[in-house]
Design brief:
With 206 residues, the protein is mostly beta strands. 12% of the residues lie in helices and 31% in strands. Bound molecules: the ligand Nc1nc2c(c(=O)[nH]1)N[C@H]1C(S)=C(S)[C@@H](COP(=O)(O)O)O[C@H]1N2 and molybdenum atom.
């Protein structure tokens, strides 16, 4: 029996219902990978790349590219959700979890409850530390097994897939612990402070 003779709608319907459970309200699935950047794509050389971890005014530590590559590598397959309403299913990323990053700095428990992510080009976004540890957040360096394209945040970006994608800061350079929550680039321009796609926390007041 060929594909045309399968009783009408059976297979597509099942597929749609599986997708429906995986796609947050108001989102639609896309197969391509849109690029959303508030500014130009920086061209970053790996030799010059450094990630800094900051507490108050002082530097807790920095990782250069080799340092990051030598940490335990984790690969995940996850769905990502952009506030502009596209979701992409089963994206595959490799990098270092925040648990492993903090372990490598001798940080056994978060120093402060919030982090501001600072990027090349000045973009910022705030994330509670609780949303980064426990395997929830990563610094990723590979997409689909290959170095992340510059437009998608290469060489390294934040990945926090359970929150809207604006929290997944591209071209990450600095992580700054904060005692009190502060708003980042989009959060101070009308976006929701937290951004849970399942609760449709798109804009302030949602
Ligand atoms: N540095 C930086 N990171 C950023 C952005 C940005 O403009 N600058 N845009 C954010 C937004 S709004 C989204 S939806 C995602 C888009 O990631 P993509 O371009 O890889 O799809 O990156 C986020 N991270
Ligand atoms: Mo976005």
């Amino acid at each position: 029996m060929d594909e045309d003779h399968i009783s009408h709608g059976f297979r597509p319907k099942r597929r749609n219902e599986t997708q429906k459970e995986r796609v947050p309200p108001g989102q639609h699935v896309t197969v391509d990978f849109p690029i959303l950047s508030a500014g130009p794509t920086p061209q970053i050389k790996i030799e010059n790349w450094k990630l800094a971890l900051q507490l108050g005014g002082s530097l807790v530590r920095t990782w250069n590219w080799q340092d990051l590559e030598s940490l335990p590598q984790t690969t995940i397959k996850t769905d990502i959700h952009c506030v502009t309403k596209w979701s992409k299913l089963d994206t595959s990323w490799q990098g270092v979890t925040f648990d492993d990053l903090f372990d490598s700095s001798g940080i056994s428990r978060p120093l402060e409850p919030y982090i501001m992510a600072h990027c090349d080009g000045g973009y910022t976004t705030n994330v509670p530390v609780a949303d980064l540890v426990g395997g929830k957040g990563m610094i990723v360096t590979r997409y689909d097994g290959l170095p992340i394209a510059p437009a998608h945040g290469g060489p390294a970006r934040l990945l926090v897939p359970h929150l809207y994608l604006w929290k997944s800061a591209k071209w990450i350079r600095r992580l700054r612990f904060m005692t009190a929550d502060e708003r980042g680039f989009w959060e101070s321009r009308g976006y929701h402070n937290y951004g849970d796609p399942w609760k449709e926390q798109r804009y302030d007041g949602d």
